[in-house]
Amino acid sequence: xxxxxxxxxxxxxxxxxxxxxxxxxETTKVTTSVQSPxxxxxxxxxxxxxxxxxxxxxxxxxxxKRASLEHDPKEMxxxxxxxxxxxxxxxxxxxxxxxxxxxxxxxxAGQANLKGHFEVLVQNCMVCxxxxxxxxxxxxxxxxxDN
Length: 147
Ligand code: HEC
What we know:
With 147 residues, the protein is mainly α. Helix content is 63%, strand content 0%. It has one domain (41-143).
């Protein structure tokens, strides 16, 4: 009985360690994902700027500051994409409009509600990515406050 318990304890400890150990590896993967700059589309560059902008604001909100976003979300509809099939769909338009609405709501929100509105914004990133471009979703998850 005791040995069984010990084995269980060791196993769960190992599992716990592997989860903890995975984190730093993930973040290095995230920060080193720079691809050949010449081939990046306008939309890809805009998205990267949006990510960095969101990351900065997340840190400022965590520090209890009031922060505003600098990217212009309307450019999602004018920037040249890598693949026009990704942005010519009805869902891209609908998700893009929803994102803009969430962006405006964030900027109109009072200090007490900023974090909540920020999370809604991240959700809007994720929802569009689910159908148009799932690749960056792991990275976008970093924008949630508990990550
Ligand atoms: C309306 C849909 C939509 C919304 C909303 C959206 N994205 Fe994107 N995102 C795309 C598409 C499509 C691409 C692929 C662009 C390309 O390759 O030209 C992309 C690409 C990216 C990339 C990869 C860029 C690269 O390096 O190639 C990142 C990172 C990204 N988005 C982050 C975000 C973040 C953060 C948000 C929210 C603040 C967001 N996206 C909101 C559709 C969206």
